[in-house]
Predict the structure.
Amino acid sequence: MARRAKSLASDQVEGSFKEQFRRIHDYAYEILRCNPGSTVKVKVDEMQGESIFGRFYTCFKACKDAFVLSRPFIGLDGCFLKRKYGGELLTAVAKDANDQMLPLAYAIVEVENKETWKWFLEILVDDLGGPEVCGACTFMSDQQKVCICSWKYFYSHYSHELY
C-alpha cells in the first residue's frame, strides 16, 4: 500500500515514466537546440500504434572539440539502470591534458550485448573523427567480453591494443 502511494505521489510530482519517454524526441531536440553540433540519436520502436523507447545516444559538441586536445585514450564502460524500466548506460570517457576525466558520449540501451556496443561504437567513432583518428587511440574497458568482442569485430582491420 505504501509503495503504491509513493509511486502515485512521485508520478504527480515528477510525471510518469511513460509520459517522460513519450517526450524523448523533445529532449533530443532541446539538446541539439542548446548545443549546436552535438549528436543525438534516438531509436524508438513502434508496437501497436504506440512508441516504445529503444536507445538514446548523446555526444555534446564541447566534448567532441575537447577530445581533439586530449590524450589518445578512450575508456568504455556500461552499468545497469535500476529504475522501473531498467536498461543499460554505456559510456565513453577520455583523459584530458591534466589527466582529468573527459566525458565523451553516453547511450541508454535496452541491454548490454554485442549489437548495442557495436551501435554505440559506430556512432562514437564517427563523432570523434572516424577510424583514422580513433585508430590511433588506446581503448580500455572493464574487460566485459561483449565490449571487447564488439570492438574487435568492428575494427578488426586496425592495429591497436585492447586492455
Remarks:
- Strands lie at 39-47, 50-59, 73-80, 88-95, 101-109, 138-141.
- The longest helix spans residues 114-127.
- Confidence is low (pLDDT under 50) at residues 157-163.
- The chain has one domain: 2-154.
